[in-house]
Amino acid sequence: MIRIGMLSYWHVHAEDYTKQVLGHPDTEIAAIWDELPARGAEKAEKYGVPFIADLDELLAREDIDAVVVDAPTNMHRDVMVKAARAGKHIFTEKVVAPTVAEAGEIEAAVREAGVKFAVSLPRLYDGYTQSILEVIASGKLGQLTLARVRLSHNGSTADWLPQHFYSKEQCGGGALIDLGCHPVYLVRKFLGLPETVSATFGYASGREVEDNAVAVFSYPNGAIGIAEAGFVNSHSPFSIELHGTDGTLLYGFPEEKILLRTNSDAEKAWTEIPVGDRVPYAFDQWVRHIQENTEATENVAFALDLTLLMDAANRSASEGRAVALSSLRG
């Protein structure tokens, strides 16, 4: 049994990861820490486990094998570096960190300690993504020329997001670094890493952080990637567009169906492609890596690329210019 320390309930998905820990046959919650003691104590009582107010004390416990990190994004580096040095395996909410430099420190600490590390990137493993990747691999779309992924909700205008999600200090940004992570890593999956990133942020609800965001990725072969996210849209379906020299694929317009139209189809008609099965969640993969002493190589690489792209987008929006990824890689 892998005994897990839950590190903070700051993130809106912390309860979801709690359910994953409790629902997995090989994991259990051993203790809880939270930067807000009252919140942590409440969760500890709810789940019948000890609340440990001192993070160092929790990490020093020999009966804790691993941690799930849902702390504020600006605390990720300090929390995860400490956890790695304490020899605890780490599963974390995205993003790894708001900047390339901080993500690099976490990666180095994990590598030096030899602990197992994985990041929640759920839409990378969903069934529609697997089916879309099969279409791309088949060559039916030809050379991809544009990928667009959009994810948006009305959390700001309907005021159901927790107020701390509008803290630039804690979050490192707004809609793009939260919801926009999913479109960003999917565009990265479909097109690869771009040369440059250009981002535009909107502040429709007057918050400290952006609530309406677009990031555009430019590629040397002429392809363009577009990642969109927002907190100010009531009926904006999650959607994916892929366009290539020989075809187009659509998902979520608005139904959760994959539609394909290609030049190879004599009738040039839209055809529905079945949505396949999802692959295991990153949490389940992480548990298996701990048990089998293997590495979440692809997951971690995509998570680090996500921070690279997010850092570039934030800089672009702030400075009003395109940012070359090469300038952030040291």
CATH architecture of the largest domain, please? 2-Layer Sandwich
Radius of gyration: 20 Å
Biggest sheet overview: 9 strands, mixed
Percentage beta strand: 15-25%
| Low-pLDDT stretches | none
Determine the oligomeric state from the structure: single chain
Count up the helices.
10
Number of domains: 2
Strand order of the largest sheet: 13-12-11-10-6-9-8-7-14
| Full CATH superfamily name of the largest domain | Dihydrodipicolinate Reductase, domain 2
Give the SSE order as H and E letters. EHEHHEHEHEHEHHEEEEEEEHHE
Mean pLDDT: 97
Distance between the termini: 41 Å
CATH class designation of the largest domain: Alpha Beta
- Helical amount: 25-40%
- What is the number of strand segments? 14
The best one-word shape is globular
CATH topology of the largest domain: Dihydrodipicolinate Reductase, domain 2
Q: Determine the structural class based on helices, strands and strand pairing.
A: alpha/beta
Could you characterize what this model shows?
The protein is an alpha/beta fold. It has two domains: 2-115, Rossmann fold (3-Layer(aba) Sandwich); 123-279 and 311-327, 2-Layer Sandwich (Dihydrodipicolinate Reductase, domain 2). Helix content is 34%, strand content 23%. The protein has helices at residues 14-23, 37-47, 55-60, 76-85, 100-113, 127-138, 168-171, 181-191, 282-292, 297-319; strands spanning 2-7, 27-33, 66-69, 89-92, 117-119, 144-152, 196-202, 212-218, 224-230, 239-244, 247-251, 258-262, 271-273, 323-324. Strands 13-12-11-10-6-9-8-7-14 form a nine-stranded mixed beta sheet. A five-stranded parallel beta sheet has the order 2-1-3-4-5, with helices on both faces. Strand 3 (66-69), helix 4 (76-85) and strand 4 (89-92) form a beta-alpha-beta unit. The longest helix is centred in the last third of the chain and has 23 residues, at 297-319. The termini are far apart. 46% of the residues are buried. The model has no long low-confidence stretch (mean pLDDT 97).
